[in-house]
Amino acid sequence: MVAPLLLERGVRRLTMREAARVAYVSVGALYHYFPTKRDLVLHGLQQEPLERFCHDYFAKYFGLRSQDPWKFFDGFVEFQAEACMFVRPSVQAAVELGSEAFWPTLEGVIELGLAKFADALRLAVPVATDLDVTRLARSVRHVFIAGMFDRSMTAHELREEIRTVIEGARSLTRPVVASSA
Known about the structure:
It contains ten helices and no strands. The protein folds into two domains: 1-41, Arc Repressor Mutant, subunit A (Orthogonal Bundle), CATH 1.10.10; 42-170. The protein has helices spanning 3-9, 16-23, 27-33, 37-41, 47-61, 64-67, 69-97, 102-124, 130-149, 155-171. The mean pLDDT is 84.
């Protein structure tokens, strides 16, 4: 609930009183969970919430990785879009605050998700080379990072761009038709 306000106003203009009001809690309750404004605005980049976010996705979709990789990818698209929207306010706050601490955490989470994506891609497209898999995973990573920094990119646009990248994987399974010369 605080995220839209954070994106709109920025860290420096956001007050804990405003944050408490939009979160429907008292200022004291907000300080109980977030001892400082920095803790509040960087919450989306903290290890525990990110792990919980990832755990929920993998609990729901991981079984599909080998059963139906394409459904796994559909879930992956949703997960990536939601994850991007979850961390975007904190990334924007970190940029505004000049925080460098968020990169290692963010890199770890992105890499974990992409490693699972690459594993599923190898199952879905056994003919894909390691280079194909690396390129597709890297493309998904680029779209995700762009979504964190591009405030104009909507969750819908992010989903569509990731789907476009994943369609590249589907094309690896289609036979190449020789053109007649």
